[in-house]
Amino acid sequence: QVQLVESGGGLVQAGGSLRLPCAASGRAIPGNTIWYRHAPGKVREFVATITWSRGQTYYADSVKGRFTISRDNGNNTVYLQMEKLKPEDTAIYYCTLQQFWGQGTQVTVSS
């Protein structure tokens, strides 16, 4: 069993920054860690992913150049660094690994 725990969400003004850790516990399993977000009234949206084997990163166009996904293997943690936040980034952010999902963390960006 794998547990994923997101944290780091909160309320921030437009233009601000947040860092969201996604900490994994339990047995180590291979797979790409993916961040999604879900805003009220909208469909769930892919945000970013980092590959298991080579640590390659991919981003949604809406966050490219502002968000950075990274991995700390020693701590079994994947980070989503968010810069230049916009009100449209407001959502619950989830990390996933294979079929496992975290509980999500709320990010609210005020204008």
Describe this entry's structure for a reader.
- This protein is mainly beta.
- It has strands at 2-6, 10-13, 18-26, 33-38, 45-50, 57-59, 67-72, 77-82, 91-97, 100-101, 105-110.
- Strands 2, 4, 5, 6, 9, 10 and 11 form a seven-stranded mixed beta sheet that branches. A four-stranded antiparallel beta sheet has the order 1-3-8-7, with no helix packed on it.
- A hairpin with a 6-residue loop joins strand 5 (45-50) and strand 6 (57-59).
- The radius of gyration is 13 Å and the shape is globular.
Question: Can you lay out the helices and strands and say which pair or pack?
Answer:
Elements: E1 2-6, E2 10-13, E3 18-26, E4 33-38, E5 45-50, E6 57-59, E7 67-72, E8 77-82, E9 91-97, E10 100-101, E11 105-110
Parallel strand pairs: 2-11
Antiparallel strand pairs: 1-3, 3-8, 4-5, 4-9, 5-6, 7-8, 9-10, 9-11
